[in-house]
Amino acid sequence: MRIHRLLFVLPAVAILAVGGSAFASNAYQGSDRSYVFDTNHKAGACDNESDGRAVFVSYTNGRYELERVFDRSGNDGVCYVNTYQVSTGILDHQTCEQINNWPDACGSVSKHY
Length: 113
Ligand SMILES: [Ca+2]
Description:
Layout: H1 2-19, E1 27-29, E2 32-37, E3 42-46, E4 55-61, E5 66-71, E6 79-81, E7 90-99, E8 102-106, E9 110-111
Antiparallel strand pairs: 1-2, 2-3, 3-6, 4-5, 4-7, 7-8, 7-9
């Protein structure tokens, strides 16, 4: 019984530690990047491609609602982040770019749980 409990707890701790790292929180779509910070309470989007497509971070808050933060200023070195703290925390996030008359292109989901 004691061994089972240890096996369950250790992976959970390891995942939390990775989620808390600034580098591990990066998610990419090509060169475009999104990230979470402030202990998973804020998210940011960075447009790093000069292709005229807006970039956004799509994340799931603690109420399982999808929210977005856009970088519409192009590949200018400026990233955009939440102006508020997501009080329920951010469960996962991914980087997406908007393509005219086409579905958004999104990278893989980075999970924080
Ligand atoms: Ca920009």
